[in-house]
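User: For documentation purposes, I need each entry recorded in a consistent format: the amino acid sequence on its own, followed directly by the corresponding C-alpha cells. There are two entries in this batch. Please keep commentary to a minimum and don't merge the entries.

Assistant: Recorded as requested. Entry 1:
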Amino acid sequence: MHASIETARTIEEVRLCEAKCAAIYWNSWTNVSIRLRPRDISRVPVSWTRYETRKSTLTGAPRAATNPINSLLNYSYSLLKSEARLALLSVGLDPTLGILHADQRNRDSFALDAMEPVRPMVDAFILDLLEERILTSRDFVELPNGVCRVRAPMTHDLALTLPRWRQLMAPVATDLAQAFRRVDPSAVTLAAAPHRKLSQATRTPASSPSPLLATPRRKRPQRPYASKAWGTPRPEPLLLTPNACARCNEPVVKRRRKHCDKCIPGVRADHARKIVVVARATLAVQTAAGEDPRKDPEVNRRRGRAIAQGHRRNRERSSDYANDGRDEKWFHFHILRKLDEVPLSQIAAVTGLSLAACSRFRAGKRVPHKRHWTALEAMLKDLMG
C-alpha cells in the first residue's frame, strides 16, 4: 500500500489508495463493543452493542449512522470539522475549496481535507470513551427512519472536547497556510472548464511575495492525543491560565481547585485527620462535663438491644427467603427493568428505604434484600393494572 501511494501520479490514484487503507482500518474495528448497564441490554437492538461496519444500512455510507459507535464518530467528526473551518478562516484560507475532497455546493471540502491529520486523535478518544464509560439507553435515540442519534447529556460532554480539537487544528492550519505561500504563482496554470474559456485578461495576476515570509515563523510542536491521561470528557474545560497549587506551587488547570492532582490525596488525608482531632476534642469536652455518651448505661443498653434485634431479624429473613426459587436474575428480569419509569418516592414508600438507596437499586448498582421484592412486585402489578 505504501508503494502504491509513492507511485501515485494523480489525485484519483491517491483517492483509490486512501479508500483501500480506510477499508483495512475500519475492518480492524469489528471487535469494538460498547458497555451498557445490565438493565439496558434488553432495551436496545443487538446491533447496537457492537461495531459491524462503518457504512450505514440506510445509505451505504458513514452518513446517517444506525448504531451508537458510528453515531459517536459522526458527531465527533462534525465537531472537528467546525474547528477545522474556523482554523482555516483564521489563517486566510477558503474552507470550501477542496483538494482531495471534490468541490461540492454547500460543503466545506477543504475543511474535510485539513481535519485528516487530527482524525486519529478523535478515533483514539472514542475508543477510550467506549472502554471507560458505561453507556445507557438514554444516551442515544433511534429516529423513525432508523437513524441513531446521540442525545443529551452525552452531546454536552462531547462538545467539551472542542478546545482540544481547536488546539490540535491550529498547527495544521498554520502549516497549510505556509505551504500555500511557498507556492510559486508563475508555475500555477489554471485549467479552464470545458464549457468556459478563460482569456488572458481574466486570469488572476501573479501576486507579490507575502511579507509574512520575511519573518521567521516558529513552528508549533505537535501535541497528539496519545495517552489516557485525558480520559473521558470532563464536565468543565481546562483553564487557559493555570493557578498555582497551594501546597507545591505546581500549575492547576482544573476550575475550583486549589491543589494539583499529586497533592490531592495528601490534602484529603490531612483533612480526615483534622476531623478526627476535632471529634476527639469534642468528646473530651463532653467527658469533662460529665456528658460522655459512651458511659451512659441506658444508651449502651438501647444500642445493644438494637444490634441484637437487627442480627436476629437478618437471620430470620435469610431463612425465610432461602428456598423461594428467586435469585438476582429473576429480580433483574421481573422487577429491575420495569423500575425505570417509577418515581423514587414511590419506591421508597413501599420499601421504607431512603431515596439514595432506592436510586442505587433503580440504577442497577445494588440489589435490595429479598424482603423488598414482594412489595416491589405488588407495586408494579398495581401500576400496570
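Entry 2:
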Amino acid sequence: MRLSRLPGTMLWVGCLAVLASAAPAAERKPPAPTLGDLKPRNIEVRPDRTVDASAQRAIENYRGYLKDKNADPEQQAEALRRLGDLNLEVGEGERMDREASAVDAQAGEAIQLYMRLLKDYPEAPTNERVLYQLARAYETTGQTDKALETLDTLTRRYEKIANPDEVAFRRGEILFSAQRYPEAEKAYRASLESPVTRGGFRSQSLYKRGWSLFKQGLNEESLPPFADVLEATLLDPASSGRVRPIESLGRADRELADDTLRVMSIAFSYMEGARSLDPFIATRGTPAYSHLLYSRLGDLYVEKQRYQDAADTYRAFVARDPVNENAPLLAVQAIEAYRKGGFSELVLQGKREYVERYNFAADFWQGRDRSAYSQVVGELKTNLKDVATYLHATAQGSKKPADFRIASRWYRDYLESFPDDPEAAGTNYLLAETLFDSQQFAEAAAEYQKTAYDYPRNPRSGAAAYASIVAYQKERERLAGDAQAQWHLQQIDAGI
C-alpha cells in the first residue's frame, strides 16, 4: 500500500484483497469456512516510472538555491516543497528494485524538508499539499503511526481540502492494515460520503468498507457495500440491465469483482446460505448479476464437498427465475453437484426437470432464437437422451409394459426435438423396441418400418425391417376376421 500524491504528481493505487480458500473436508458436511480460512493477498498497481538524470540535476539545483541566504522567502518555500517532492519521487523510482520496507535516505530527506517548510513557513498556501506529502513520506518509510497522525492534522487544519475522498481512503488503509477495523470502516465511509468522490477511490472504499465490516463479524452489514462494488464493476453503464462478462473487464476490475463475489459467498455461507441470499436479492431489486451470487455460493459449497447444499443453492436461482437466460446453466450445475455427491436418483430427477423446463415448447424459448443458446440446446439433447436410455434400462429390468411406455415417451420427445440428429435412426429403433415390449405392436411395426425405410441406410435397417414383420404378426394374432386379414396383408408387404 502506498499513499498517493495530490493532483499534478503520479498516483499510486494500492488495495488489499482477501481471498478465502480452504481444503475440502473429508466428511459429507464439514464445518463452514471461518475467518481463519482467509489469507490476505496484496494487489498493488504500480504505474510506470522514469527517473532520469534531469531529476537528479533538479535536486542539486534546488539544494544550491536553498543555500542562497538572499533568496526570496516565497521562492525558497516553493523550492523546499519541490525538493521534497523530487526526493520522494526519485526514492520511489529506486525502491522498485529494492525491498518495499527499506527506509531510503531520499524519503528521509523529503521528511526533513517538509518539516522545515512547515516550521519556517507555517502560513504557506501550499501547506495543505505539504502535509499530505509528508504523510505519504512517513508511510513510504514504514512510519504508519506518524502518517496517520499527519493525515489527521491535515483534516483538522483544513476544512475544505482538495481531495477529501483520497485522504479518508488513505486513513482507512492505514487503519485496516493495523487491524483497527471499526475505525477503518468509518474512514472508508467518510471517503464515500465526501463531497468529492472519484471513481477509483469510490470502488476501493466500498470494497474495503465491506471487508472492514466482515472482519468484525458483521456479515449481513457487509453485503450492501460489496453489492455496490458489483454494480460499479459488472453492470454495463449504457444498460444497467446487462452484465458485462467478468473476463471482458480490465485486470483490476476483474480481480475486484472476483474477490467481491468470493467474500460475499463466504458471508452468505456463514448465514443461512440460499435462504439468506433470496431476501437480499429482493431488497436489491433482483439485479442483473444475481445469478453470479447463487453460482459462486454453490461453487463454495462444492469446494467444501457440501454437494446437497450446492445443488439447493443453484436450484434456488432456477426456481426464482426459471426463464432467466442464466437459469439453464445453474440447473446444469445442480445436476453436476448431485453427480459429484453420488446422488444418482437426484441426478436423474435433475435431468428430467431440465427437460421439462427447457424443452422447445417451454416458456424459456418464447422470443428466443435457438441458435443463440447452443449450450442450452446441447444440454437439452444430452439430458433427453440420458433420461430415455436410463428409463429404457429400468424397464428392461422390471419387464413391466408400463415402464416401457414411459421410456417410449422420452424417445418420442427426443426425436420430435431433434429430428435431424445423426443418430436419429438408432434412436427411432429404440423407440420401436420400447413400443414392442409394451405390447403396442401396431405402433412398433410403424416405427420399425420408419427406421428401415424412411431413414438413409443405417446399421439398424435390416434388423428393423425384420422386426416390423414380427410386430405385424403379433398384432395380427390379437385380431380376428377382416382386421386380422388386413394385418396379414401388411405383414406380407413388409416381408416383400
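Summary note for entry 2:
The longest helix spans residues 374-398.
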